[in-house]
Amino acid sequence: MFSSRRLRWPGGALALLVMAVTIAACGSSKPSTTKTTSTVSSTSSSVAASATSSTESAGTIPVTFVGDETGLVAFVGKEVLKGMEVAVKRANASGELHGKKIVLSVMDTASNVSTATVKMSDAVKSNAVAVFGPLLSNEALATAPIAERGKVVDIETEAEVGGLLQIGKYIYRLTPSEFLYYPLTVDHLAKLGVKHVNLVYASDNPTLTEESTKLLPEWTKKLGISIGTSVGIPSTTTEFSSIVTKLETGKPEAIGVNMIGPAIASIASALRTSGYKGTIFCDQSATAGSLKPGGSAANGIIYGVLYSPEMSFPSSKEFTKLYEESFPGEKPQGYDATGYDAMTAFADAIAKSGSDTREGVLKGMQELTVAGSFDGGSGPLKFTGPEHREVSGPGALVEWKEGAEHMLVQGTPGLESQPLKAQ
Amino acid sequence: MPGAPAAGEMLQQLINAIVFGSVLTLFALGLSLAWGTLDVLNLAHGAVFIFAGYLTYELTRQGALSFVPALIVSMVGAGAATVALEVLAFRFIRTRFANKRQAELSMLVASIGGAIIIDQVVSNETGATTFGPPSSIFKVREYHLTGSAGITNIQILIVVVAVLAAVGLDQWVRRSRQGRAVRAVAYDPVTSGLLGVNVSFVAISTMFVAGALAGLAGVLLAVNLRAEEVAVGQDYLLTAFAILIVGGVGSVRGAVLAAYLIAIAETAVVAYGPTQWRDGIAFLLILLVLLVRPQGLFAKAQFQRA
User: What is the least distance, in Å, from the CA of A18 to any CA of chain B?
Assistant: First the structure.
């Protein structure tokens, strides 16, 4: 889902450059900082000098999340990690790991490509039998070859960039593309009788641009919906009045806001303030709590999600329950589910191969793909794509109302992508 | 009447441009003041701008303060953050570097450091995600004008405050005793000090006013946008550079005119041109001005300083 956002100002670029050089220098001269998460054993895997391990470790199965715990997408990284922690807890308690326990370590990429490569190198040099992440597409593209060369399975989440899986057989992506369940939104629009929509999208985000300029026009056309104004703006845009005026031309019955971050709430608020009463739909980026600041103006916004706590799949219900037990008072969200799904697949792979060496993990993952699917927090996930190293999921359509998501439609599991039923 | 919607839309876009220009004015005034008088190109200005929005969010989300007190506290907080940068970094650099160019570059780097620290604080406190003050602190209402055009009460407030701030700052710098001291320091800090001007106090008060102006803009924008994130301040910083270069560094009137000029140009591109080229407009204007009139459109000489 994530593509790197462009640097926004010369000072920021300079600062990041200085930081990158500093971090790279630090990374080459001293061991990296590694954190072992609180939900697992305190016998942390050390990054320091341990050689690449192909031998089974006694009692523990070390894995590393090379993730964005600070920086641009820290809000995602923190949730993905929480989901992983829940899955580790479940797998360790289940006994399916042949009496061993997963020990999860975290290396923070700070949403920075240079840092991510240093951390991935450290993780590959460590005794970790598998790595997870990082989340940003540009980080994933830079680090996946390191994992591939180190012959360690790298389970990606979130990074939707093309070409990632072509890097090699050790690379997996276990977050279903939003493209697979976005049709649920379009289908719902058709059922509401929408015939004409206008659209704004982040033109510097490859995923949102492809979604908005290629896929959405195809889907809407099939359902007899026309797209009038389609406005591409940089995701860094902060002045929306003129765009909102443009979006309202032609009085569309629905307006799409395929943006990321605060732009969604800002545009929705401006639309409602100016009296727009039609349907507002957006991309799954809205799941990161970005609608909350919109208050009542965000009520009624619809979007497709990978996971909803209201999903009826048994594995989804189990995830929701385990999450709420682990983090009392919190509701799980899509990013938590992606972390849970990735770690659940890893545990299932260990259970299948019966070996927790790096080779054993690869063998287990390959056996899992042959099985065709596994049950994650997002429901039954079907292996698909090149060599079946990525997955499709049912997804769901939700409506934002009074500060929370409410599921309108649950997707159908076992399909490559959700159908346009209204055609 | 077929022409009516187009006319209404055109009027709406003009209103949008004026509001946008007003936000840019508020943002650029503080930056211009610091750069024009103290030679501080404060790259932390955008971070301070967002810091004020964050303070308002924190002060209002639990219902602790209403809009006006939160605005005042946030402006003071933003001013204090800028003064902290002056006291902890800029002042030392100014006294330790005899070479003016070296000092300017060092202050530039120091301000980047300040921006990173402030951004990190806000980022940590907000979980690096979207934040905004609750809608209950300022009930936004739209007043319909002619056709489909309208303007909201927060937009009216932004325009009025921007005009008052610009006029007030212009008069303060031009006519007040303190303003004359600021201009004297801007012209020659050493001679000003010998003539009895308290240069240190002038620097601190100038930086406070600059920060408070960023805070004022930050709070009004937070209420208008409803949702912000740390990076928003950086985007305004980029446009503010264009304003300062087009308007002429240190010229309050130049900054105001350039802010509205850029706002109108960018809005026109969004409304009637290729939207994705909006950001390019600012850079095109910078390029043109640097080629034709390097000192800025409204600076009469190299040193205009208000």
Answer: 10
Q: What angle do CA B33, B215, B242 make, to 5 degrees?
A: 50
B133, closest residue in chain A (CA to CA): A293
Residue-wise pLDDT tens digits, B53-77: 999 999 998 778 999 999 999 999 9
Q: Which domains does chain A have, with CATH numbers?
A: 56-178+315-392 (3.40.50.2300), 182-305+396-410 (3.40.50.2300)
Radius of gyration of chain A (CA): 21
Q: What is the Cα Rg of chain B in Å?
A: 20
Q: Is A72 on the interface with B (CB under 8 A)?
A: yes
CA pair distance A378, A395, nearest whole angstrom:
7
In the stretch 3-42 of chain A, residues with CB closer than 8 A to chain B read 5, 8-12, 14-15, 18-19
> Measured in whole angstroms, how far is the alpha carbon of residue A362 from the centre of its chain?
22
Q: What is the residue type of A142?
A: A
Partner-chain contact B229 A203, CB within 8 Å: no
What is the DSSP code string of A36-83? E-TTS-S-PPP-SSPPPP-SPPSSEEEEEEEE-SSSTTHHHHHHHHHH
Q: Do B128 and A297 touch (CB under 8 A)?
A: no
Distances (CA, A) of A103 to A40, A85, A346: 6, 10, 13
Give CA–CA dist A176/A160, Å, rounded: 9
Each residue of A153-179: pLDDT tens digit?
A: 999 998 877 789 999 999 999 999 888
Query: What ipTM score was computed for the predicted complex, to two decimals?
Result: 0.79
- Flag whether residue A243 sits within 8 Å of chain B, measured between CB atoms: yes
- Per-residue pLDDT, averaged over A269-280, amounts to 92
Q: Are A306 and A397 in contact (CB under 8 A)?
A: no
Measured distance CA(B188)–CA(B183) in Å, rounded: 9
**B179-207: pLDDT as tens digits:** 888 888 877 878 888 888 888 899 999 99
What residue spans define the domains of chain B?
26-231
* B chain contacts of residue A295, beta-carbon cutoff 8 Å: 134-136, 226
Taking the C-alpha atoms of residue A239 and residue B236, their distance in angstroms, rounded to an integer, is 10
CB contact under 8 A, A261 and B13: no
| Contact residues, chain B, for A263 at CB < 8 Å | 227
Size of interface A-B (CB pairs under 8 A): 154
Residue B131: closest C-alpha in chain A = A293
What is the residue whose two structure tokens read 């072509």? A166
Comparing alpha-carbon positions, the chain B residue that sits nearest to A263 is B227
Q: Which residues of B touch A275 (CB under 8 A)?
A: 142, 150
- pLDDT tier, A421 (very low <50, low <70, confident <90, very high otherwise): confident
Residues in A closer than 8 angstroms to B142, CB to CB, are 273-275
Q: What is the torsion angle, in degrees rounded to the nearest 10, for the CA atoms of residue B5, residue B11, residue B13 and residue B14?
A: 170
Q: Nearest Cβ partner of B112 from A11, A262, A293?
A: A11
- Nearest residue to A349 via CA among A39, A98, A127, A80: A98
- In degrees, rounded to 5, the angle at the alpha carbon of residue A160 between the alpha carbons of residues A157 and A163 is 115
Q: Rounded to whole angstroms, how far apart are CA atoms A92 and A55?
A: 20
Contacts of A241 in chain B (CB under 8 A): 15-16, 19-20, 155
Q: Is A294 exposed, middle or buried (0-12, 13-18, 19+ CB in 10 A)?
A: buried
